[in-house]
Amino acid sequence: MTNLIAQHDAAVIECLRRHADTFEPAGPGRWELGLAGGQGAICATVAMEQDWLLFNVAPGDPDRQPRPSTERLGELLQANARLPGGVKFALDAVPPRVLLAAEIPLHEQVDVDGQVSDVRAGLRQGVIEFTRQQGHDTAEPKPPKTAPADENLQAEAPPQHEHALVDLCREAGWPCTERAGGHVAVTLDAGRAFTQAIVEPAGQASYRAWVELGANPSPSDTTSHAVNWLLLLACRVVRMARAVAVPAADGRVAYGWEVVLGRSPAAGELHDAFSALSVACRLTRREIHALQEESVAQKYLAARGWSSPRSAE
C-alpha cells in the first residue's frame, strides 16, 4: 500500500512538472510553479493535502494588491462562470485580497493530467481578467456567460460518453432523474430545503453541475455587494465548487454554485461534485436570502469594514 501511494504521488508530481515552465519545491507536499501568461510569468502555489491537489495564485503583486472594491466583486463572480478548469476567484478575509484558486480531487477515476492542463489555462485567463479589471489592460473582455434558455440547452449536443450520464449519477449514489436533452436533475443533501442540481453539457467536451440559490431582479447596491462578498469568501472554503453570478436575458442576476466536470466524468468525480455543491448550499443558501434585506446587508458589510453605498453618502 505504501508503495502504491508513493507511486501515485510521484505520478502527480511528474504531471505538475510537465505542465509548469518552472517547478520548485516549497516544503513537504508543496511546490511553486511558474506558468507563462499573457501578462508575464504567473507564480502558482500547489499543495497536496490528503486526497486533494490545491492551486492558489495571488494575481498582481500580492504585497501591493489594493483592497478589492465592492463594485468589482460582482464582476469577479461573473468571471468565475467563464474560467476554464473550475478555476475561481475567491477572497481571503484578513487582510481582504483576491485570489485565484482551484481544487482537483485525487483518486483513480479522475483524469489528473487533463484537469491540471485545464487549471493551468484557467489560472492564466484569470490573471488576464484580473489585470483588465484593475485597469492595466485595455483589451475588451469576453462577453459574460448568460443563463441559457431551456431550448438552447436542449439544442446543445452533450459530449460523447460510454455510459449514460444518469447511470453514472446513480452509480455515484445520488437520487436523480433524467430530463430532456440528456440533462440530469440530482437531489442534493442540502438540509431541509429540497435542492436539485442540474448536470448539463458545458461545451463539446465537458459537463457542469449547477445549482441556483437565488436571483435578484433589481438588487440594490448594498444587497448585491453583501451577497457578492459572502459568495467570494465562501469560495475560499468550499473545495471543487465555485460561486457564480450569471446574468440572464430577462435582466435578472442568478446566484449559484457550479462544478466544472472533466471531459469524461466518472462516478467518483460526480460524487465529489454533488458533495461539494451540498456543502456550498448549506453554507450560503439561507445567508443569500437574509442578505436581500437592506438592513441586514448593511450590518453584514459594516461588520467586515465595508461601508454600504447609502451609509457613505
Provide the descriptors you would attach to this structure in a database record:
globular; 313 residues; 37% helix; six-stranded antiparallel sheet; alpha+beta; 12 strands
Average residue pLDDT: 83
CATH hierarchy, class: Alpha Beta
So what's the oligomer here?
single chain
Low-confidence stretches: 137-158
Helix content: 25-40%
As a percent range, the share of strand residues is: 25-35%
Structure, described:
- The protein is of the alpha+beta class.
- The chain has one domain (2-312): Yope Regulator, Chain: A (2-Layer Sandwich).
- It is 37% helix and 25% strand.
- The protein has a six-stranded antiparallel beta sheet. A six-stranded antiparallel beta sheet has the order 7-8-9-10-12-11.
- The chain is globular, with a radius of gyration of 19 Å.
- The chain starts with a helix and ends with a helix.
- The relative contact order is 0.13.
- Mean pLDDT is 83; it is low at 137-158.
